[in-house]
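> tool_call: predict_assembly(chains=two)
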Amino acid sequence: MTQRGSAPLETVLSIVFLMLLVLGTIEVSLALYGRNVVAEAAHEGARAALELGRGSDSAAEIARSTVRRSSGALVRDLKVEVLPQTVGSMSYVQVRVAGWLRLAGPVPVPVPVTATATVSKEVAPR
Amino acid sequence: MRSRDSGQAVIETLLVSLILLVPLMWMLGVLSDLHRGALGTTAAAREAGSDAASSSGLANASVAVERAVRQAFVDDGLDPRRAVVSWVATPGFERGGTVKVSVTYPVTIVQFPFLGRVAGPSIGVKAIDLARIDPYRSRP
């Protein structure tokens, strides 16, 4: 049994395997990064809605636009649900974000990502 | 004897790759947890600072800090009981003064796939927020 040509073949196989490993690592890192970005965007959206909103509709619109701007191009099919609420002297805004991460790598499977953020503020007496 | 060596490089590559892969994945998981912990801690400190600064008094500010930190950690999937929170405000909670909130969270770095975290060493992530008490806040 001859071994001629086996070294280049093994090298090619090894390089392919290592490339998959490196690209897979980058893909996993992007997925984790995307999850954190969406969580942060939800917080930003909720805080902006609470501070700047002049009513339920206005708060919801501010939260949506803030989340979309903060999420960037990594997330697609973004769904933003905003639940403003006032209980007694407390005002609450909850933002729920759901979307799909657009990953480029050896396994380009869309990854679902969700995040929830709730912020509160004491309403000044009138 | 020569035929026994065939394919050995592939096996060696696979073994070395696995040895590289395991710590690499572990490191990715830890870095992700650290990033998540840092984001959660930052969000908790910021929300607590904002919430406390818009409160009508010291007592309400204290409640606001606890509530905001707990809520931020729960939202980010972190355990609020492990967080260490401290805060100080300008004496008398004067309008235009400051509220300083400090939140520290230990991120466990020893964890196993499918088993989760185990008790052991951790890296503390800390966030500090300095918020200005609303100078025009009306009070009861």
